[in-house]
Structures are given as C-alpha cells and as structure tokens.
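Deliverable D4.2, example record:
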Amino acid sequence: MMREIGSEFWLEYSKVDLTQNRNDVFPMGDDNVYVLSGRTAIDFILDDISTNVRSVYMPSYCCDSMLQPFVDRDIELYFYDVISSSVGLEYVVDHDKDVDLFFATSYFGYGCTTMDAYVETFKSRNIVVIEDITHRLLCERSHCKSADYLVSSLRKWFPIPSGGLAVKMNGRFRSRDLAPPPVELLSKKVRAMRKKAEYIKSTKKQNNEHDKRQFLELYSQFNQSLRFNYKRQGMDDLSLRLMSTLDISSIQTKRRSNAQYVYAKLENFTHIKPLIAKPDFTQDCPLFVPIMIRADQRDNLRDYLVRNNVFCPIHWPVSERVVLSPRSTILYAEELSLICDQRYSNTVLERLLNLLGEFESTI
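Output generated by the structure prediction step:
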C-alpha cells in the first residue's frame, strides 16, 4: 500500500520530559501567550482591546474559523478583496474604510503577499490592527512591527496536538488568565496523531482502512469541538514541550528545499502554474506551494490525488459569511495547495508531481 501524503500531522516521540523548563520559541513583541488555537488567540486579543470594537475589516480570502470570534461578539464584518494577479496576490483595500479594527494577513509563506504597508496606513488613522502571521511565521520577516497584535496557529506547521500564539506588540496583556484545555478534548487529538503514526509506519494491508477510519474520526471530533470550545484556553503542556524541542532552522531549510524542488518541476507544466510566480527562497518559507488550475478542473485534480492517497488542501471552502466580488471568487475556485512540508523527501514529492503530470495529460 502506498503511504499517504499530506493531511494531518502524526505524532512520534519516545518520551517528553514535562519537568524541564520550556523555551519561548517565538519571542515577539512586549508580551506573548501560547493558547489552544489560532481562533483562541484572536478571541484572547479581542478581550484585551480597551476600545469598543463594533466592526472589523477582513480579507475576503480566509478560513471560516478566524471569523468565529468576531461573529460570537456580534462584530460587524466588512471584507476587502484578495485577488489573484500576475504578481500573485493583490488587495483591494479602501484606505478610508470606517471600521474599528483592521485585520491583516499574508499567504502561504511568501513575502510578496504581506500587507505591511496597509498595516501602517490603518495605524496612522489610529485604528487597531491585528496581523495574522500564521502563514509567514517561519519567514525571515515573520511579522509587521507596526501591528498592535499578532496571531498565529502553530499546529499548521508542526506535529503538536494544539497551539496558537497571541502577541501584544506594545505593553502587557491586561489578563493572562487561561484555563487548561479539557483533558478529553486533547486526548482525542493525541490518540489520533499516535494512531496515524502507526498507520504511516505499518506495512500491513490488513486492518489499515479500519485504523484510518479510527484516527480520521478522532481528528474530526477534535476539530468539531474547537468550533465552540476555544475561548481562553491555554496550549497543552505536551505541545509546549514538543514545540520547544523542534529545530526550527532545519524545518525552514527543509521546507525551502522542498518548495524549490516543486517549483523546478512545475516549470514543465502547461495547465498547472504556481500562484506565486517568483518566490524569494532566501526570505520566504512556504507553508504550501499554491497552484492554480482552471476552475472546471480543480476539483477533478484534487479528487484524482485523493484516489491516489495524496491529500492537498484547498484554501479555503467559501464561508457563508464572506461577501465575494466576481474577481475574488477566482482564488477560491482555482487554488490548490501542494504539500512541501518537513515530513517529506524529494522522492515522495516526485510521486505527487508525477500524479500532477498524469492528470495534466488528460486535460
């Protein structure tokens, strides 16, 4: 059986010393707090803002989960367009928009997608700015120093059960009170990650599909629970210890090397092209390699990869809360994220690229 590529991280460790001091892996700003998830980080920051936040200006290209903390507080959502273009991504932002909060982001770990100039514009109007740095976390320039707050989901990058980061750039958080995450919730995620590790290592066909259904159900239960049970909860101790043992430099090097390998192969494709045409791998650290393919073929390609045990995500399913212009629908319809993370060698990525080639030959 061919081992699967992509999807959720698995968990492999022999023993983690929970008595040792934890290292602060991402020291940024004046104060930072490690929390359960990226969604938790947004909610934690909203608790800290002293002014009354009635409205927020968000990117049209976003995950539904990042909207939930605002929806839960009845904060009105406005959206600026994120569109694909010859340079990769462009933002259509009303610099004079009457809002209480500006939410900036960047995409896929490429410096050309950052919004630092927009952050500075809204800051000059005394509007509170939160920057989501999830995708640029491991880039050489991981954040904009002009933002008021930073948020990140850490479990998108690393094999840890939970993890989000909330940063206050100037001053201390008014309250750092956090509850530990529910034991039952985290135990589901740990069990899922361990079961997947066993599945990945197994060479036996017997019971593999049963094992896979088990860990997929546990992952699903964990993710569903996070939708409603995420407020003011800290990062679990196991994740904190695991994260402090990570070699961030080697992860950056591996991701850059993998992405460069994928980019070199994509030059031979006609119908499949990278969203970001000219990355700077001396500065960028990709979370994924996003590609664009005709909307009428994108889902067919994804299904073809799944049938061959390769799981490349779409960023993202369109949230019912997002208001899209015709130009901003293109990204949602044509984008697919190729895997380039630290788990994989060039040999594994070659299998992914061969499948892309096989599919393209049918278009």
